[in-house]
Every structure is written in C-alpha cells, then in structure tokens.
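To assess whether the prediction recovers the assembly geometry, we first specified each molecular entity separately, as shown.
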Amino acid sequence: MSRPDQVAKNIELVREKIRQARRVLVLTGAGISAESGVPTFRGAGGLWREYRATDLATPEAFARNPQLVWEFYNYRRQVLAPLKPNAAHMALVTLENRTPDFVLLTQNIDGLHQAAGSRAVVELHGNIWWVRCCGCGRKSEDRRLPIPYPPYCEACGAMLRPDVVWFGESLDSHVLQTAYDNLERCDVMVVIGTSGVVQPAASMGLYAQQHGAFVVEINLEPTPYSRAFNVSLLGKAGELVPQIIEESPPSS
Ligand code: BJW
Ligand code: ZN
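The predicted structure of the complete assembly is given in tokenized form:
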C-alpha cells in the first residue's frame, strides 16, 4: 500500500474508533496552539532574550531573580492576549459536544481551549492568567497587562507568582487523580502536539494504552512514543484534528 493510501486508511480507522467510543480522552501540548501563533517550548520559538523558556520555568529561576521571571511571564501574556483558538481547538469542542464522556487534559497554560468553548478541561500545568500567593497559596485570576512588579498578595503581603507548574514541582494532586482516573477508563485517547519529553504527561498515553485504550498521536514529527501508540498521524493539528472529528468525509 502506498503511503498516502496508508495515511487515508489510518485516518478512517481513527474516525471509526472515535465514532464508536463512549469515553474519549484528549491530551494536548504546545503543538496544538502553534497554529494560533503560540511559540512551542522546544521549537525555534523557545527562546526569550538569551534565555531558554524551560530554564526560566523553574522555582530556582524565580528564587534567584523573580523580576526576570515576571518579565518573562508578562512578555508571554502580551504575546498570548490577542491570539485566538484555531481549527484544532474548535474541532475538539465539536467532539466534546457529541461524546457521552469526554475529558480534555492539557499541558498548555494559554487558556485557548476554554476560549474555544471546551468545558471539560483539566489543566495539568496551570494557567498563565492566574496568579498564586507564595505565602498563603491564595489563587486569583489576573488579566492585567502587564502585572506591575513586584506583585503582592492583598491577603498576606507575600509575593505572587504565576499559577503554573514549573520543573521539579508536583502537579496538583487532585488534577493528577482526575487525569489517571480518566486515563484508566477511556476507550480512545488522542495525544496532540506534545514532544513527549516532560513527565508525567509524557507517559500518559502509554498508561491509557496499558489500561485498554486505543491511542492515537497527532504531531508534525515522530515522538518517542509514535511507534508504541496504535496510530501516529504526522501533520498539522489544525488540519488533522478536524479531519478525524468532523462529520464530513476525510480528504485524501
Ligand atoms: C505540532 C505542531 C502543529 C508543533 N501540529 N504538532 C521522570 C523521569 C525523568 C524526569 C522526570 C520524571 N518525572 C518528573 C521529572 C522531572 C520533570 C521532567 O519531566 N523533566 C524532563 C524534561 C526530563 N518533570 C517535572 O518536573 C514535573 N513535575 C513532577 O513530575 O513532579 C514530581 C517530580 C519532580 C522531580 C523529579 C521527579 C518527580 C513538572 C513538569 C512541569 C512542566 N512545566 C512546563 C512549564 C509550564 C509553565 C510555562 O509554560 O511557563 O510545561 S515546561 C513545558 O513543557 C510546559 C509544557 O506544558 C511542557 C510540555 O511541552 P510540550 O507541550 O510537549 O511542548 P514542546 O514544545 O516540547 O513540543 C511541541 C510539540 O508539538 C512538538 O512535538 C512538535 O513537533 C509539535 N508541533 N507544531 C502538530 N502545528
Ligand atoms: Zn497571600
């Protein structure tokens, strides 16, 4: 079978699995927002000034230089503010609306799934539009652009930080429990636009597969998990996600 025939066959297989599924779980990463204009972490857009984004997303960087880290997050908020969900985000709303049991796990902190209209969203790594007090832990939504430095908690006076999960920090235990409960019971899992290097999200597809799910990956390029998953579709999320979800027949 030629490669285009194989791709069309895989797309049809995935469409059929999704149509038959009662419980569908989706896991998204930075790649789904790339076509909205959000820089990915490990791609060409992963640099700010001379810093790698992943070097600033750490508690150590914040302890060393909170002003620098806040400048970085204020910059990213400025970039994100005008951006809109794309066709992949929108297709997931369609999927949610017609699936009896649907959950969307996202590693993204950009809020674009909610902006598209997704409701069952579980944010594994927090949300850039929320802040959290380093002292009392109080959380609040804060959409100021920029957040004036230094930002202080109105309740206790300690410094605020972005309400996101940095390297070396634990994910929220309730969020993790919800994620694993759903990974254990889903019929189909679709993993979209994540490089599969950051734990624990990276292992979630295999975990679902070990618990009986049919797991599909959509990515521009192969990942460490592509060969293990049931189907790996290579291409843009903004094209492939609507193709596997919308009612119209897939284009070849
Ligand atoms: C497209 C596309 C298009 C592009 N269409 N596709 C076990 C083993 C080893 C290490 C660890 C482990 N457990 C924990 C760790 C440590 C660490 C970790 O995983 N390190 C690895 C890097 C080795 N994990 C943690 O620290 C986590 N905490 C934890 O597990 O606590 C317990 C613990 C701690 C320490 C030791 C042991 C246990 C917390 C992780 C928090 C991650 N935080 C960040 C920052 C969030 C805030 C912010 O944004 O500022 O989350 S890092 C960054 O990476 C961000 C992302 O959500 C995350 C994942 O990135 P993602 O989404 O995959 O993006 P990219 O850029 O990598 O990939 C984009 C993909 O899209 C690519 O594949 C493209 O091809 C594709 N693509 N355009 C389709 N149009
Ligand atoms: Zn406080």
